[in-house]
Batch of 2 targets.
Target 1
Amino acid sequence: MKNLIKNFLIFFTTFLLIAAVFSYFSGNGQKSEVVGIDTLIKQINDQEISQVAITGNEIKVTLKQGQSEVVKKEAGDTFSQIVKDYNIDPSKVAAIKIEVKDETGLNYWLGVILPFLIPFILISVFIYFMLRSVQGANSKAMMFGQSQAKEIGREFKDKVIFKDVAGVKEAKEELKEVVEFLKNPQKFSEVGARTPRGVLLLGAPGTGKTLLARAVAGEANVPFFSLSGSEFVEMFVGVGASRVRDLFRRAKKSAPCIIFIDEIDAVGRKRGSGLGGSHDEREQTLNQILVEMDGFDPNTNVIVLAATNRPDVLDPALLRPGRFDRRVILDEPDLADREAILKVHSKKKPLGKEVSLKRVAERTPGFTGADLANLLNESAILAAMKNRKIISMEDIFDSVEKVMMGPERKSRILSNKEKKTTAYHEAGHAIVAHFLPLTDPVQKVSIIARGQAGGYTLKLPLEDKHMYSKTEYLEEIAVLLAGYVAEQEIFGEVTTGATSDLRRATGLARKLITDYGMSETLGPRTFGDKEEMIFLGREIHEQRDYSEKIAEQIDKEISSFIDVAAHQAKGVIKTKSDFLEKIVAALMERETLEKEEFEQIVGKKVKPESSVAK
Ligand code: ADP
Ligand code: MG
Ligand code: ZN
């Protein structure tokens, strides 16, 4: 497409040039005024003319004052004919210097030929470019097998170093070794150490795998060949393998260097486990990678970094010693890491004095590095939209909610009845979350629609949590069901607003039983085989590895968990109905309650002894 536009521009410019040349010759480069014959006659009679020059069908007139003008005449007419026809006194004509010129050769011929020549030239140029772009496509087809790896040289502009990657301390520690090896390989070979060949970066999307790989190259100051796993897989079988070969050949030439294969799971999936599809191609590509990695001379300073967020689907052959034997895990950032990442990304952004990145970090559990970078960007956009030069705390908090739940939809007007229903629903969530002992404290309650949700209750953990007990989960389910329960208690029936709550509650209850072994009746085992298969591009997630009878039991157990939780929620809503009414009244009036406003009504959340003692 780009090529097409470029060709068109060249074509257009050529056209303009030719047109300019043409108009130059035909206009003879002079800008004389064109006048009619009657003016000429008048000027002759007034004796204003000093000279005329006749060329073809034109009479060029030079006036005594020095200006010149052009008169067109008919082809057959001569000047003397005109003089005669208009009865001009011959003595007046005698004073004029008359010159008859042949049309000059070049001028004449251009005048005749150009009108024919121009379309011809244009068409030729057009055909030339057409042919050229077809050829381009052809030669690209021939280059298929070559690797498309982008080499980022030593001097690349946006060089990244370890300092730009916040958090992930352990990962950086591990990768420092790799940097050391790239810098002084002799140090290792002298003591007979086999140097790492492949390092696999594992982590959820957005945790900074790609960033960290670039930082390794930046620190070691070596070339960096980066290629994404999916780029190996093309339309034609065999292309992937030849690309791998080409990539490794290029890398060996510029050793020491780093080859970075991003999203390696695209080629490195377990072999022979898929059904149909482009499987052979992937297998060949993977085999070629393995062959190349084995074929390294132990002294080549080439290190292969690869990144994936699906280590579970990788082929075991990739993971054995001598290949990707190092594994570096990038965790989701904890509180301190989040603050550090925010600090890195706020460097070029003017933040208000009141902004506390620590408080932002507290509000964003579960955010990855990419989410946090995006969050700050959203806040900057928000500030710019409000024509401010400085990003405020409010901008950032607004963006947190926007990133989590989609933009506020203030335009959605709720009828009074809907507004009331939503208020009871959200107040139900909030009250139950507040009064159950183990749940996270409420941060914000709102009945302004956001993304898919009609309203929302935001609650956040006080600290990062990695483990949950069954009681905590059941309370979580109770909070999810609280909106439904509140609607039912107050109005006697429920609305569609509770749909996604119910889905999530049911999903969580199922997980407790099938994944976490938290059901007493079914015992400590998991249900359902999560091994993934790909069939016609669709992932089939779960395979049942239990009997029909167990399935029935699971269903029953899910219902009983839900019942317990719903009962718990109902208990809170009934005993705290005065608080519920107060919250609803406040929501109807203000629409949104921040943590402080909420706590003014219900008091501070009381944490049970056991949880504090943790
Ligand atoms: P992935 O793990 O999916 O490859 P990336 O490395 O592409 O994630 O991260 C995306 C973006 O998120 C980075 O460009 C960077 O701006 C930001 N980011 C992620 N992790 C960090 C981190 N630890 N420190 C600073 N920025 C980070
Ligand atoms: Mg990435
Ligand atoms: Zn709800």
Note: Residues 105-142 form the longest helix (38 residues).
Target 2
Amino acid sequence: MLLVKEFALSKKIQAIRGMNDLLPGDSPRWQFLEAKVRRLMQRYGFDEIRMPILEQTALFARSIGEVTDIVEKEMYTFEDRNGDSLTLRPEGTASCVRAALEHGLLHNQTQRLWYQGPMFRHERPQKGRYRQFHQVGVEAYGFDGPDIDAEVILLSARLWQELGLADHVTLELNSLGSSEARSAYRATLVEYFNDHRDVLDEDSLRRLESNPLRILDSKNPAMAEMLDGAPQLMDHLDEESRRHFEQLTTMLQAAGIDYVVNPRLVRGLDYYCRTVFEWTTTALGSQGTVCAGGRYDGLVEQLGGKPTPAVGFAMGIERLVLLLETLDLVPADAMGGCDVYMLPMDDSATVAALTLAEQLRGALPELRLQMHCGGGSFKSRMKKADKSGATLAVLIGDEELAQHSATVKFLRDDRDQRSLPQAELAVELHGLLETPEA
Ligand code: ATP
Ligand code: MG
């Protein structure tokens, strides 16, 4: 008993399953992606919004839908000290609508917004599927035509281009029609499924009552043939949705965006209508959807606002980073590193080296300079210089102190070291780092 207790005490506390640390070796890939995203949003005229990660539970139950996977079994919900039911956000759209309404952003105006941050779902952790994961989301409010649908899809397509992913992702498109058309279709579908009850698995039988459209989404091979024969939403669209979809595809074609119409694409959240789409890849195994979205014209009203058309998408950052890593698409110079290691040869040179380092940083804002800290023998200092990954080391010792000079040592190629006056160092370093071969 005592042993068990001691073991428990000495056991290290670990992170929660499915919630990852982002380590220094990986963060450059995230930063690379995040920088591209930020710039892209500016280029398309989308403004950033940041919402809290905790919301009242009712927000998600009311928007995502009571009988969706997310609300039924994936949410992190708890009572806080006041007894209020709170939920760690499983997605961003509901929060974004809540925030936009709360601050009057939808009052007689359109909005194009984007956000990024962690989302939380209690799912079975596996490659590309985590309990804390990150999304970049885009939401546009107040536009009812297909032009904005095209615009958000074009924005995402340009991101794939910028990242070098364009040849590795496929755009899948569908239309869910108006909510009226969808209920009519729903009835037809339920009739069909009832005629094929013997083929339905347990999950699907449950969904037959609550959310029959989601059965179309099933990956169960035993149901594939039956699903192929199911009536298709596309054949039951209302006239306006059909026109909306046709115009959207015309716009995508004109922009040179390839797509496939996937009549079984229904998406897991209740609030979608008309356009739905996903960008998928085959390079990640079964977690192949990297971006998903669509139109949700009813949600703003459902959450207490005036009827406001809306369209948006969210992409999974972990999956995109995994894709960048798998395909080795992050350029070496974006993977971090350092240009110069400032190396006082012993402690008597520390002050001079620190001062010189600051001068160089002031003169060369792009310079990545790491200062040697922590003392040590000359040998161990040189080892650290090498380990820093720097191209050059700037050495300051007794001789350099006396002469106000610095010794530049080339750490990566076989070149003679050079002694330079400190006053000329900034200009010289600039030249040396711009044209490393010279
Ligand atoms: P999936 O079918 O993979 O479960 P979803 O339909 O639940 O996805 P959305 O709610 O549409 O996903 O979220 C948009 C994107 O966020 C997904 O396409 C995916 O890239 C990412 N995503 C969703 N859930 C997770 C998760 N648990 N871990 C990592 N990324 C996720
Ligand atoms: Mg899911």
Note: The mean pLDDT is 93.
